[in-house]
Amino acid sequence: MIGGLFIYNHKGEVLISRVYRDDIGRNAVDAFRVNVIHARQQVRSPVTNIARTSFFHVKRSNIWLAAVTKQNVNAAMVFEFLYKMCDVMTAYFGKISEENIKNNFVLIYELLDEILDFGYPQNSETGALKTFITQTGIKSQSKEEQSQITSQVTGQIGWRREGIKYRRNELFLDVLESVNLLMSPQGQVLSAHVSGRVVMKSYLSGMPECKFGMNDKIVIDKQGKGGATDEAGKSGGGGGKQSIAIDDCTFHQCVRLSKFDAERSISFIPPDGECELMRYRTTKDIILPFRVIPLVREVGRTKLEVKVVIKSNFKPSLLAQKIEVRIPTPLNTSGVQVICMKGKAKYKASENAIVWKIKRMAGMKESQISAEIELLPTNDKKKWARPPISMNFEVPFAPSGLKVRYLKVFEPKLNYSDHDVIKWVRYIGRSGIYETRC
Amino acid sequence: MTDSKYFTTNKKGEIFELKAELNNEKKEKRKEAVKKVIAAMTVGKDVSSLFPDVVNCMQTDNLELKKLVYLYLMNYAKSQPDMAIMAVNSFVKDCEDPNPLIRALAVRTMGCIRVDKITEYLCEPLRKCLKDEDPYVRKTAAVCVAKLHDINAQMVEDQGFLDSLRDLIADSNPMVVANAVAALSEISESHPNSNLLDLNPQNINKLLTALNECTEWGQIFILDCLSNYNPKDEREAQSICERVTPRLSHANSAVVLSAVKVLMKFLELLPKESDYYNTLLKKLSPPLVTLLSGEPEVQYVALRNINLIVQKRPEILKQEIKVFFVKYNDPIYVKLEKLDIMIRLASQANIAQVLAELKEYATEVDVDFVRKAVRAIGRCAIKVEQSAERCVSTLLDLIQTKVNYVVQEAIVVIRDIFRKYPNKYESIIATLCENLDSLDEPDARAAMIWIVGEYAERIDNADELLESFLEGFHDESTQVQLTLLTAIVKLFLKKPSETQELVQQVLSLATQDSDNPDLRDRGYIYWRLLSTDPVTAKEVVLSEKPLISEETDLIEPTLLDELICHIGSLASVYHKPPNAFVEGSHGIHRKHLPIQHGSIDTGESPVSTGPAAPIEPAQSVIPSQGDLLGDLLNLDLGPPVNVPQVSSMQMGAVDLLGGGLDSLLGGDLGGGVGGSPAVGQNFIPSSVPNTFAPSPTPAALSSGLNDLFELSTGMAVTTGGYVAPKTVWLPAVKAKGLEISGTFSRRQGQMYMDMTFTNKALQHMTDFAIQFNKNSFGVIPTTPLPIHTPLMPSQSIDVSLPLNTIGPVMKMDPLNNLQVTSNVHRMVPWSVLGKSRRADLQRPISQSHTVSGKLQNDNIYTIAKRNVEGQDMLYQSLKLTNGIWILAELRIQPGNPNYTLSLKCRAPEVSQYVYQVYDSVLKN
């Protein structure tokens, strides 16, 4: 198991050092600094073995978090734990920076004592932790409160406490998708997938039992066969595909996985406030919101002509926002002249790219940029690698075609029903890695 | 809020000042001071001298201060054991506190203080806490048992904590269960044979129930523990799998990987043709792909594991190659791993896409990545024959870029392509030669020289090219020198007239001016070879070479199986068994894949590791890790008439000096066995009996039955080797009441078939005769069946029939088929062996010398023995009556009943039977 956990600043100075196991000594702290942080070459692996001691590290801005062990630990778990640690710290004091860590070092030690015992991760849900570890010192708790805390930390529903009350029961669902694309210069899709998340913000009283439904192909097909009436089918209307094929999905720990496995229904008691209910991935029938058509021509050894056309491919009534096209330029670029039909374009020498920004663009439109790039003559034999043209955007629909069909809330003990809950749904599609080779 | 100020104090009398502050009357001041101490401790300053003062602050109601003091104690108690005792009272008191958080804190901290005296006081509070009413305290106490065990294992056993811990597996709280499982798993790792966890179906059921309810981390502990369980049959395996599969949808990648581990292990137990088996395979693929959309570090861990999974069960991900395409912004470690998997998944169906990708990668920035991409193109060419031409032209394009490291890498892989497809792409040699000057890496130079030497007859200026390398001969690396020597000798044999001077030059450089023993030896070998008999030299040096295998870099199957048992862990990231990087007792216990039961009757070898696994036979693996056996037996793979390359026969080189070449080669060729001459002649005693055949049934026969004519029923096995017990060859129902059971044995070098004839019919039987059909070993009886009296009803008679192997040989299918007719008709497993396979067998614990003694009785001779990492490696040879040689490597671990057997032989069919022989001989 994890033998120790260290946090360093960018210089390699230790900010936090917590040792859990006897086989990890102080010299481990220095070994990581010398061999990884101060290493001459770029780090080639997130796992480093130095003198039979293994170091797992992640970096957040310029802070290094390193977990150390001498045993054959579960590597995936160690990384998941480090991510979780980052989440917990962010939830407590915001951005992970040297200053914040120094300001909260007592708190961090307290957290580390709680969420790792002898190197075994324990309950690390911020909701639960915040009930008894606070920045403002510990309030004296009544006996009931104490046992409530412990039963929550160890209990089946460790993510929610009893007795939550809201005057207005409300919930927000965000379907956030990032669409990834790799396209060949000829316009052939080399790979495309959508990785989506359903984020739920709930302000519900009591211990509400929720059921979430979407236009999952497997469920829809099953219902179609069984002839069951589709109670919430109307909300899924409005054009587009009836159902989508989900390659795979993962759920927040509040979702009953065995029930999903058996019936493919998503039921849960949500944590209070915000949580990421599910993640999913689709690869079939993706709506690619933009098409990028590049044309690069080398005119002699000192000039490049670039023309890029972007086409929006969705309903004309919708508007895409924050569009940015990044066209890489060779390292020996001496000057660039750009003409674009829409938006603003600029050559950024420090980033070796032409950045073309458009604030808004409706569906089924087309826009174009052309640029002339002057090159300095070099005797470097190696050809320019031609990195792909990348694109960023945000669209108000889900490129996977996913639709929320219903989210039902049941709370038998309290006197509010599903109809009293105010529900909001929003779809946002963003670009992930959206690249076209040129 | 701003605690950072505590880091900045750096005055001279710091310690002194802190001491004063720690003893301040005001609570707040004291807390401040302790914070300063902790900050100093973090930075690495020695503040141990403040020990008594800090401990004084322990008696407080302020939980925050208390936690800080505890933190200090954990760090320094070991260096101040006497003073640490001062804290005991406070701990014991806290363990009685009404607040469960404080009780847990006390027991948690106490377990981290590694001072003997304190641990003594820990026992009582711990016992109470293990039975505490609050689950939070119980889950903390469970981990504390593991802590205590790490300090004083004996005490934990004496105090009965292990039983309490086992009781917690049935606890009502899932987190308590999970922590108890984690603690027990850790403790049992240091006692591999104790069966501490006592995994039985009831307990497994409890774990599976807790699995649905506990935290993500708890799920990982439970799944990791489940993976060590061996279900008793396929039904149990399937029901566990059904309850584990929902975990594949968990958001935590470690839960997913641990679930994959359980499923991969239990798949071994499921019948291959069942529907469930195939559904399960299908279910495994999406979660693995999803892991690749996680953070890069987790992607890395996932990819390293996928690399193993793809080797073990390629069918799972064969459709998913696209997800392994490299993204421009992937970290380099992710890129390199993806590339590896792409090559493994490359097939005729997707090769066009893969090649297009690889070509892109070859223009990237990172040098290592580009090199690997170029190498990958070469490997595709070798793997998918249809693509070879396209690969070669892609490589040529890359050579045209003139980027130095790309060119060098390309030339290295082109050499391998030439070796795989000889006489096909020689037209590109001219292009290669253009780049001769830019090669500065030994690998690339050696590759180029090899190409020139190999195709010297087609390159007009081959002599000039090679001569140009000769100029700086002594500055070259050994690899280049050796290749150059060989290349020039090849050139000389192809164009003797023009190159005599050149060859003399290189021979004198290699033999007289060099200190490198390898180089000198090889030089001398060539020299004598050329001066003694140029014709033979030509035959030897220019002989046809075996083609190189398709898949390289495969992990050795036994290691792969072991790593599959470690999916998700560090071992799977390093691709090394845990004992390669873990010190001490942990991880020494090797894990094995479960073995499917009940396959013996189906004729499948009962000892092969994973009957369900489509593992490539090991012979296609280029042995990687100093596998002596592999080295020895490389010789074996050559065509029977020629010893593949003289250069690889360094063991026999000494004998060559006095013109011994002829006798060495001649002798061996005469034997008709092209393999391992050095080994055979040096080590095998000349008295190896000719008629050796090590089968439990027909041939492994050297028992102590002394008198041929004595019809003894109770055979006294006094001196000889192992004789298999008689088995029923012919059941009475099939032969009108005659039952024949028998076995084979050997006494005084003579092979016998021992049979018992029993008359189960109502009439007496007469006129016995026996006839052997043609069989693989030419076995015939030397005398007629010595039964002269009629066989009365329910009487039985024992007969020993001497056998000979001079009869006509005919290859039977299966090889072990011996058909004997008369009143007798039957099949016998007839032992012959296979090319190279491995098997893990169960063996009663015994020392390696007793093993080799035992085997020697059965004419399996130990040639060499060495000890690697605590394992005894025995190298053994045996020969079958029909002249098939078998070499075996037996790996034995003292104290472990499992052993591993690897075989090499030119007749692959026989291996299965040899495994059976070893198994039955060693178990006997």
From TrEMBL, chain A:
Residues 168-437 form the MHD domain. It is found in: Cell membrane; Membrane, Coated pit. A 1,2-diacyl-sn-glycero-3-phospho-(1D-myo-inositol-3,4,5-trisphosphate) binds at K344, K346, K348, K357, K359. One of its GO terms (cellular component) is clathrin-coated pit. The keyword Protein transport applies. Pfam families: Adap_comp_sub, Clat_adaptor_s. It is a peripheral membrane protein. Keywords: Cell membrane, Coated pit, Endocytosis, Lipid-binding, Membrane, Protein transport, Transport. InterPro entries: Adaptor_comp_med_subunit, AP2_Mu_C_sf, AP2_Mu_N, AP_mu_sigma_su, Clathrin_mu, Clathrin_mu_CS, Longin-like_dom_sf, MHD. GO terms for biological process: endocytosis; intracellular protein transport. It comes from the Eukaryota. PANTHER family: AP COMPLEX SUBUNIT MU. Belongs to the adaptor complexes medium subunit family. This is MHD domain-containing protein.
UniProtKB/TrEMBL annotation, chain B:
GO terms for cellular component: clathrin adaptor complex; cytoplasmic vesicle; endomembrane system. The keyword Acetylation applies. GO terms for biological process: intracellular protein transport; vesicle-mediated transport. Belongs to the adaptor complexes large subunit family. Residues 722-829 form the Clathrin adaptor alpha/beta/gamma-adaptin appendage Ig-like subdomain domain. It is found in: Endomembrane system. Keywords: Acetylation, Membrane, Protein transport, Transport. Residues 818-923 form the Beta-adaptin appendage C-terminal subdomain domain. Its main location: membrane. It is a peripheral membrane protein. This is AP complex subunit beta. The gene is AP2B1.
